[in-house]
Structure formats: C-alpha cells, structure tokens
C-alpha cells in the first residue's frame, strides 16, 4: 500500500494553526526492520521510506509547517554493508533527479547539510543542482541531512572559527552562540521546535546535537515506512500539549 495523500489534506480541526511547530526534524528510523518483518530485503524499506518522506513533506505544506529536516544518512551509516550504502546513494541521486520538477512546482526550497564532499561525485552534482534551482522558492524549507554527524558539524565549525581567529578576522571574545551558529551547516535555518523519531529508539544518534537544545522530542514505535499523516497528526497534537518553558518558570 502506498501512502494516500488525499487523506487528511486539511489541517485537522484539533490542531491550532498558530501553535504549530515552525520547524520539524525527523529521524526516519526503522526501514530495515519494516522490510525484515515482511521477509523483504532492507532496501525495500528504504524505497518505501522515500514515499513516506514525500508525503510528509507535502503534508507539512498542506498544514502550514514551514520547515522540515530529515535525517537521511549519518556519518556512522558508512559502517553498513557496502551494497546497502551503494543502494542508498543511488536512491538519493535518482529521487533527487525525479523530484526536482515537482519541488519547483510545489515551491520547495531544498537544502543539504552534512559533509557533502565525501559523497559520490554524481550525487554531489544532483545536490548542487537541486539547491541552486530551488534557492529562490518561497515555500517550505526542506533540509536533508546526508553524511551528517552532529559532532562532526560542531568540529568543522570550531576549525573554521579557529582559522579565522588565526588570521585575525575574529577575536576569541567575539565567539558567542550567534557567531558559532553561523559556522554550522544549518546557518540560516531556525532550530527545530519538534524532533520526531520513529521505531521506538530513545536516542538522538548524532543528529543536530547543537540545534536540538530546546526541541520537544517525540518518539513513536511506528516504523518509518508506516509513518503517515495520522501519525504526524498525533505527533503535532502531543507537541501542542507541551509547555515550552526554555528554562523559565
Ligand atoms: C533508517 O532505517 C534509514 C537509514 C538509516 C538510512 P534503518 O535502515 O536504520 O532501519 P533499521 O533501524 O535497521 O530498522
Ligand atoms: C539514525 O538511524 C540515522 C538515520 C535515520 C539516517 P540509525 O539506525 O543509523 O541509528 P542507530 O544506529 O539506531 O543509533
Ligand atoms: Mg536504524
């Protein structure tokens, strides 16, 4: 069964439009287990996971969530069998090529974060092309974390700031949160308000370590390929019940 985008097209009545998260981040986990449960190879879970991501992106647009960030491949995922890694890289490239036209029609601005230089050259070219072509789109900001690691991101920011200090461009005392954030891959993108993880794992797995400081966390046992608008609705309802205090009383 493929996700049915015609269901829940409108913002559900029990959600308050003004209190929606502006930015939702998702750790799309459980593709392999989903496939295994069906006696299928793991890659079938990844393939299905792409369809789910497409529908959740469209759902964000339909319901008025302004930014979506998806964790597609971590710096640790290189440790998987080479066939799976190769499949994923090819899948990313193919999906990007196939979806660019539709992203333009839907006014999506796509952005990639991570150590992109280590990706296959042909994928890098698709990534550059999609970012370039969609950069003036004014609709949803869609960020894909590919070869992304939160620790690596923080380290590269430190290195880049250290170089500037060495060159005398920055004084050590000028290093504050705002300056630091400008050196992260996510410069210019607001911190996520809500972080969703599927498949029941209660961990961050090196995702957006800096940016997640005050995000509301939501974990569902549902595996990513089974995640749908009804599940997203539940996550948003849970979010709207939270009281965000940011350390205050
Ligand atoms: C998430 O699903 C997708 C990626 C990490 C690329 P997994 O592939 O981690 O699926 P499980 O966790 O093994 O079920
Ligand atoms: C996190 O899932 C990475 C992505 C969803 C891309 P993993 O499956 O790699 O995380 P762990 O190994 O369960 O922590
Ligand atoms: Mg996993």
Describe the structure.
With 249 residues, this protein is an alpha/beta fold. The chain has a single domain, classed as Undecaprenyl pyrophosphate synthetase. The chain is 41% helix and 14% strand. It contains 7 helices and 6 strands. It has helices at 31-37, 42-63, 82-105, 121-134, 150-166, 177-181, 229-241; strands at residues 23-27, 67-74, 109-113, 141-148, 194-197, 216-219. It has a 6-stranded parallel sheet, with helices on both faces. Helix 1 crosses helix 2, helix 2 (42-63) runs parallel beside helix 3 (82-105) and helix 3 (82-105) runs parallel beside helix 4. The longest helix has 24 residues, at 82-105. The chain is globular, with a radius of gyration of 18 Å. The termini are far apart. The model has no long low-confidence stretch (mean pLDDT 97). The structure holds 3-methylbut-3-enyl trihydrogen diphosphate (2 copies) and magnesium ion. One 3-methylbut-3-enyl trihydrogen diphosphate binds next to helix 1.
């Amino acid at each position: 069964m493929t996700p049915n985008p015609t269901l829940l097209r409108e913002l559900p009545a029990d959600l308050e439009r003004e209190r929606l998260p502006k930015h939702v981040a998702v750790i799309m986990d459980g593709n392999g287990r989903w496939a295994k449960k069906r006696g299928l190879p793991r890659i079938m879970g990844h393939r299905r996971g792409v369809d789910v991501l497409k529908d959740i992106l469209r759902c964000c647009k339909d319901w008025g969530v302004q930014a979506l960030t998806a964790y597609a491949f971590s710096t640790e995922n290189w440790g998987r069998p080479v066939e799976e890694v190769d499949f994923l890289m090819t899948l990313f490239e193919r999906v990007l090529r196939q979806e660019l036209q539709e992203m333009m029609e839907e006014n999506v601005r796509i952005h990639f974060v991570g150590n992109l230089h280590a990706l296959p050259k042909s994928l890098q070219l698709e990534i550059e092309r999609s970012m370039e072509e969609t950069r003036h789109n004014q609709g949803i900001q869609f960020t894909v974390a590919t070869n992304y690691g939160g620790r690596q991101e923080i380290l590269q920011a430190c290195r880049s700031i250290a170089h500037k200090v060495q060159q005398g461009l920055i004084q050590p005392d000028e290093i504050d949160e705002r300056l630091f954030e400008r050196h992260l891959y996510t410069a210019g993108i607001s911190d996520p308000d809500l972080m969703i993880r599927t498949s029941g794992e209660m961990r961050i797995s090196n995702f957006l370590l800096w940016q997640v400081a005050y995000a509301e966390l939501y974990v569902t046992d549902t595996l990513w390929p089974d995640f749908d608008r009804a599940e997203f609705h539940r996550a948003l309802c849970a979010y709207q019940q939270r009281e965000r205090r940011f350390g205050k009383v």
